[in-house]
Every structure is written in structure tokens, then in C-alpha cells.
Amino acid sequence: MPEIITLPTDVEISSDGTGHFAMIPGLDFWGPCSFSPNHKYLLAWRDLDISTGVGGRRNKGYGIILLLRGRKVLLYAPETVQRPFCGKVSNTGNFCISDMTFSDGRTGQFFIFDKAGKEVVRHRTGANIYWNDISNNGAYAFCQCASNNGRTLSIMFDAQTGMKQWERQVETGMPEGIDFRAGKNRVALLYNGGKRWLYGDTDGKFLNSSEWEEEVEWNRDAFSLYNEAVSLTEQLKAGGPATLRKKIYNLLKRALHQGEFSDYPHYQAKSFRLYGEVCEYQNDITNAVKCYRKALKIDPKVGVKRRLLKLHKETAV
């Protein structure tokens, strides 16, 4: 790598709405870039073999990465990362960058460098890298992998020592970003709609498990609620506690009020039939008859005509 050089003119920065781009006439360079939060450092890269002019997917020809501070080029590395993309630089000048590699497009590499270009981390992933980030102070770096056989791994590194802190599939699904300043010993993974879920920065422990369980429960669809009600009804009829009736009622009530069954009247009818069966099992004939009638009104083929007739005869005696 060459010694630090000073450019004769300022770097030209442009944006197309998807990101920033740097044009550096003194180095005949143009490519994506990102600034450190304090705007002292600029990291730029290009997925291009400068010897052949071939960019994008290829089998050889490394891309280019540059690190600048003002007009000073601190790092010019055309033979370090195969196919660089998605770089982030901290206020201290150390940075992380992803590599699409020369492979078949289903794996990647994640790098962390200090501002002198010394490699701190080189980590091969079993899937493409979706995005990455580094903390403002350069202490931590995070790598989010895309899906691989249904798994989406999140990986946290100590960006100074190079140690991998944790690697796992997080409970809250694939995040869209990270906040390294979420509090002592924690980070927040960020999701669409402003959702934030807290994890331990050094161990990856999920810190919002109870809130997440409530969130999952609250967002269940009507079909999931109905299916659980069916399962609990089977438990009740197999000798389960009588208190299951209340749980079944609440599940079916939520399912009917969510509106998803408005396009599936048969499921509306099945819900009333199911609760009618629960009432009948517990010898609450009055409410069983009411439920069966509602089910029959919605769907005459719901399968309760004979049962309703039987109950009418029994109560008439």
C-alpha cells in the first residue's frame, strides 16, 4: 500500500437517493462511499477490476477500497477485498466492509480494518451479507446475513480485538439496522415501523423476551387463533381442566373480531360451531343452541343441523 498522499482537489460527493458516491479525479476513481458520523473520514469502494475494467460478478480481479481524511488518502487498497460493497467507517477511522467474493453468489466475507489498513477480522459467511455497521467509537461491528436454508444469522464482533462476540439467529427476525448506543451493555436491533428489540452487546442475549411474547401473541392471525382453539377443545374433551373453556372463548372471540374471517364465512360458522361443542360438552345447552344457530345462519352446511335438532328434542322433554 502506498504512503499517505494528499489530493490536489476535494473529493466530489453526489447522491442518487440510494446512497452517496465519491468521485476522486486524482485517482481516477468513482464509487459508493460512506462518511464517519463526525464526517472526518470517508470510506469509498468499487466492485471493479481496474486492470481489465470488468465489474460485477467475475472469477478474478480484486475491487478497490479507499479511506480518506479530508484530502488525505490514508488507504488505497486495490488488492484486498474481492468484490467490496456496503462499507461503514467509525469516528476513529477503523471500518468494516462486506465482500460478495468470486464465489457462486451464495456466500460472502466480512472484513474489519483499522485506519492504517491492518486487517482485524476476516470472516466467511455461509450466506450473502445483507448489511453491516460499526459503532461510532469503533468498538463493535455488526454483520447481518441474508437467509440461508431458512436461517438468518446476526454476528457481533469486537472491532478492536477482532473477537467474535456472538453469532446466532435472533428471535425477532432479520433486522434492518442497529443502534449501538441503546444503553449499557446492550444494543438495539431496528425493524420497520420503528420497532426496537434489545440484545446484550457481548453475549447476544435477548433482553425483551416477555415483550416479544406479548407482541407475537397480539399479532397472531385469525387462523392461528382458531387452530389453537381446536387444539384446546380436543384437550378439554380428553379430560382437560374446565378452565380451558374461557381460553377457547377468548381465542375464538379474537379470531372473529380481527376481520380476516370476513372473506371466509365458513370459518366464522366453524368458530361458532366449535364453541357450541364446548358448551354442549359442559352441558351448557342454552349457549350451545345459540352458537349452533349462529353457525347455521352463516353457513347452512356447517354440519350442526342434526345436533341442533337433537338438543331441541332433549330440552323439550
Q: List the uncertain runs.
A: none
- Count of helical stretches: 6
- Write down the Rg: 30 Å
The pLDDT mean sits at 93
Return the domain count. 2
CATH architectural type of the largest domain: 7 Propeller
Order of H and E elements: EEEEEEEEEEEEEEEEEEEEHHHHHH
Q: What is the strand arrangement across the widest sheet?
A: 1-9-8-5-4-3-2
CATH class of the largest domain: Mainly Beta
CATH superfamily of the largest domain: YVTN repeat-like/Quinoprotein amine dehydrogenase
Distance between the termini: 99 Å
Largest sheet: 7 strands, antiparallel
Total count of strands: 20
Structural class based on helices, strands and sheet pairing: alpha+beta
Helix content: 25-40%
Shape descriptor: elongated
Strand content: 25-35%
Can you tell me the CATH topology of the largest domain?
A: Methylamine Dehydrogenase, Chain H
What quaternary form is this?
Answer: single chain
